[in-house]
Amino acid sequence: MKEFANILKYARPYTKSIIFAFACLILTSMISLALPLIVRNMINAVVVLKNSDLLNSLTRDLVIIILFQAAFAITHNYILGFIGHRVTADFRIELFSHIQSLSLRFFQGRRVGEILSRMSSDITVIQNALVSIPVAVLRQTITLLGALAIIFYLNWKLTGLILLVLPPLMLFARIFGKRLRVLTEKVQDKIAQALVVLEEVASSIKIVKSYTRESYEKKRFENEIESAFEQSIGKVRISSSFGPLILGLTFLVSTILIWYGGQQVMQGTTTPGELAAFFLYALIMAGPI
Length: 289
Description:
InterPro entries: ABC1_TM_dom, ABC1_TM_sf, Type_1_exporter. Residues 19-289 form the ABC transmembrane type-1 domain. Keywords: Membrane, Transmembrane, Transmembrane helix. It is a multi-pass membrane protein. This is ABC transmembrane type-1 domain-containing protein. This protein has helices spanning 2-8, 15-49, 52-101, 104-108, 112-154, 156-203, 205-210, 214-267, 272-286. By secondary structure, the chain is an all-alpha fold. The protein has 2 domains: 1-154, ABC transporter transmembrane region fold; 156-269. Helix 2 (15-49) packs antiparallel against helix 3 (52-101), helix 3 (52-101) packs antiparallel against helix 5 (112-154) and helix 5 (112-154) packs antiparallel against helix 9 (272-286). The model has no long low-confidence stretch (mean pLDDT 83).
């Protein structure tokens, strides 16, 4: 946490802009949660009430709200994107100055490729930690909790069915996701090692050619690339089954919900609009999960 706090100091000059961007983000998320309710009323206006004036009014309101949502989304995307790249640029400049101030012993104990990797890929990770991850967490938290509260209000019985299957799905996704992250890190490490070999050969190409070590260096690079390939295949094995399994389970749950919700519509305990809104909220919840 101390290291993260040190990184946050680069974002302090943009505090007001960040607060404004997050306010726009919250408004965007809240509008997204309101849209299915309007769709519910539109469907009920057609199927139940058969009121064309109400349908026209709701359609106009929906278009206006969508335009506002787009404006808020564009605003917070641009502001946070600008701040993320500005902070990254400032951090790279300071890191470069810091590297130049280090002693010769530091450079003797490290490869040039490792230092270059810190300047490129590691700073990208910092940018994600500062901007992308907090934005995603805030948006998904608002979406998940808001949608869950609304669907519970609309139909607590269907919500109960979702809550029964939600924990196993989340556990399944967590296990697969954790394994994928580990394999992704291993692939990145292997590729970084291959880039180190490439940098070493490129920086000392005269020596390599003078001692006819092309075959040896090619073998070194090939070993690193093949190692990265093996890790990538392990990642493919998991990712190739993860998506279809989640999709299959989602369709299975949707089938059960449609059957049960359809029974309620035919019995008159819920309206077609409420059932449609319920499924829209279920789709909205699927993203954060």
